[in-house]
């Protein structure tokens, strides 16, 4: 599942890479769901064209531009597979890393597997700018302090959920912005759903849509997660 907003340039090679991977991997009846977040470019048309050539492609449309968190929740709740991966349109983590996540989840009897840049930074081929990388590390430290979650990297856009876990978690998600990753993992802990963290290969791709305002809002989202828990919204 891919959340997409104005991704007409980066999406075609991503869809082709996923198609090739699924053709060579024993996943049976897989589907490729793209959630369009009110794009003003040709993103939805590209997905519809891909679907006419290959019925595994499926387009979902948000009611306007609602945010990445909304898009991921929409896609995860509509996906039909036993295991559901969500990945960013820029394919920073190569699609082949899905095999690593799936094998780790099955071996450790987990229903959520997080792709992580924080466990083994030697797997990062192309780094972000020093400022963005340092900001990410600082956010993770604050996140651990505020929420008590143990993960080294909650913000990597490459996560695998078993369908029953997704159906238990995503209806309770309240955040539509970039803090949704932490919220979903917090909900998993509240509900006793096991999650593991798995190091993955990762390469920074320029063109991020995470602005300074979005980054700062992610810090306030941590407090919202704790407040929502106090209000009993995750129980």
Question: TL;DR?
Answer:
The chain has 8 helices and 9 strands. The chain is of the alpha/beta class and 235 residues long. The longest helix has 19 residues.
Q: Which word captures the global form?
A: globular
Rg, alpha carbons: 17 Å
SSE string, helices as H and strands as E: EHEHEHEHEEHEHHEEH
Might you state the CATH topology name? Answer: Spore Coat Polysaccharide Biosynthesis Protein SpsA, Chain A
**CATH architecture descriptor text:** Alpha-Beta Complex
Report, as a whole number of angstroms, the end-to-end distance.
Answer: 26 Å
The helicity comes to: 40-55%
Task: Enumerate the spans where pLDDT stays under 50 for 5 or more consecutive residues.
Answer: none
- Count the domains: 1
Largest sheet: 4 strands, mixed
Approximate strand percentage? 15-25%
Strand arrangement across the biggest beta sheet: 4-7-5-8
Task: Kindly describe this structure.
The strands form 3 sheets. This protein has a 4-stranded mixed sheet, sandwiched between helices. The chain has a single domain (2-230), classed as Spore Coat Polysaccharide Biosynthesis Protein SpsA, Chain A (Alpha-Beta Complex). By secondary structure, it is of the alpha/beta class. Helix 1 (11-24) links the parallel strand 1 (2-4) and strand 2. 43% of the residues lie in helices and 16% in strands. The longest helix is centred in the C-terminal third of the chain and has 19 residues, at 212-230. 41% of the residues are buried.
């Amino acid at each position: 599942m891919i959340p997409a907003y104005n991704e007409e340039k980066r999406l075609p090679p991503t869809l082709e890479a996923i198609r090739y991977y699924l053709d060579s991997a024993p996943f049976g009846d897989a589907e490729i769901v793209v959630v369009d977040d009110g794009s003003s470019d040709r993103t939805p048309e590209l997905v519809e064209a891909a679907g006419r050539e290959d019925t595994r492609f499926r387009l979902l449309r948000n009611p306007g531009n609602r945010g990445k968190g909304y898009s991921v929740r929409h896609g995860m709740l509509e996906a039909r597979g036993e295991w559901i991966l969500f990945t960013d349109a820029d394919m920073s983590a190569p699609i082949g890393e899905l095999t690593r996540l799936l094998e780790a989840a099955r071996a450790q009897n987990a229903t959520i597997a997080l792709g992580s840049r924080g466990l083994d930074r030697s797997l990062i081929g192309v780094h972000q700018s020093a400022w963005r990388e340092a900001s990410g590390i600082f956010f993770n430290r604050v996140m651990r302090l505020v929420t008590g979650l143990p993960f080294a990297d909650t913000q990597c856009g490459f996560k695998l959920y078993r369908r029953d876990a997704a159906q238990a978690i995503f209806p309770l998600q309240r955040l539509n912005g970039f803090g949704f990753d932490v919220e979903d993992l917090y909900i998993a802990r509240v509900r006793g759903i096991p999650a593991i963290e798995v190091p993955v290969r990762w390469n920074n791709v320029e063109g991020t849509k995470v602005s300074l305002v979005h980054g700062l809002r992610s810090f306030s989202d941590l407090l919202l997660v704790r407040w929502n828990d106090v209000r009993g919204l995750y129980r």
